[in-house]
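Please fill in the sequence for the structure shown.

STRUCTURE ENCODING:
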């Protein structure tokens, strides 16, 4: 049972590193799973099929994120498997490997600041240490993402990408329409529904390259902003301030 104060439970301190590890675990397990579908998996994903112990290690890291040697090993092994792909490594895997490297350095620095001894390696991360790790690598990762997305958008400024007949953006933007029911997706062109679906598909295909550039310009711009200037307000309502002394004295006087 959590401790209680004034009839309300005291919230546990936030554990940002554990939250990050959970997201990291889900993302990597999904990426590895894609590799087992040879029909849709890219070469960089299908190469993960040989690392049979990797999914298990990633899963254990997500289950015990505070036991820092486990997530450290999982992230290091994941980075090595990506680097082993060489030129077959995809852009997203390259980005993820560099971000994982920033997290690993921050985690190693945090552990090295502990007193020497066995406790340095056996003691789980405390809430304050988890916050320290995330704060140490957050700025680096934020600028990594800003540079990655800026470069991704910059190299798309060419006649091939901007032409909807050749651009991969047109294809990717239209793909979500595949999830429409077949009766809508394959409706006859001479019906209202069929004509509307085709009109939307053509509009998305034509504007796909431009929409992609807008997104990839907004993402680095948002990452470049200093988050310290946009702190969230407290979610709990604040207690009312006590009345000034002068008001209290006047209120105490008999009328």
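FILLED IN BY: designer on duty
SEQUENCE:
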């Amino acid at each position: 049972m959590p401790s209680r104060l004034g009839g309300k439970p005291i919230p546990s301190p936030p554990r940002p590193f554990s939250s990050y590890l959970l997201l990291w675990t889900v993302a990597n397990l999904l990426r590895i799973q894609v590799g087992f579908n040879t029909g849709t998996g890219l070469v960089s994903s299908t190469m993960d099929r040989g690392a049979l112990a990797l999914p298990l290690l990633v899963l254990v890291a997500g289950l015990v994120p505070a036991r820092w040697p486990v997530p450290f090993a999982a992230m290091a092994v994941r980075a090595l498997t990506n680097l082993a792909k060489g030129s077959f490594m995809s852009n997203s895997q390259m980005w993820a490997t560099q971000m994982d490297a920033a997290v690993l350095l921050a985690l190693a620095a945090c552990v090295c600041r502990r007193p020497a001894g066995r406790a340095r390696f056996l003691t789980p991360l405390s809430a304050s240490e988890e916050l320290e790790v995330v704060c140490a690598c957050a700025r680096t990762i934020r600028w990594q993402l800003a540079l990655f997305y800026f470069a991704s958008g910059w190299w798309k400024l060419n006649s091939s990408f901007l032409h909807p007949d050749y651009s991969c953006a047109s294809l990717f933007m239209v793909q979500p329409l595949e999830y429409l029911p077949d009766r809508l997706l394959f409706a006859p062109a001479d019906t209202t529904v069929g004509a509307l679906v085709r009109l939307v598909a053509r509009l998305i295909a034509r504007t796909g390259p431009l929409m992609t550039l807008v997104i990839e310009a907004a993402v680095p711009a948002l990452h470049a902003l200093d988050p310290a200037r946009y702190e969230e307000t407290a979610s709990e309502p604040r207690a009312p301030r006590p009345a000034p002394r002068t008001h209290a004295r006047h209120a105490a006087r008999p009328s």
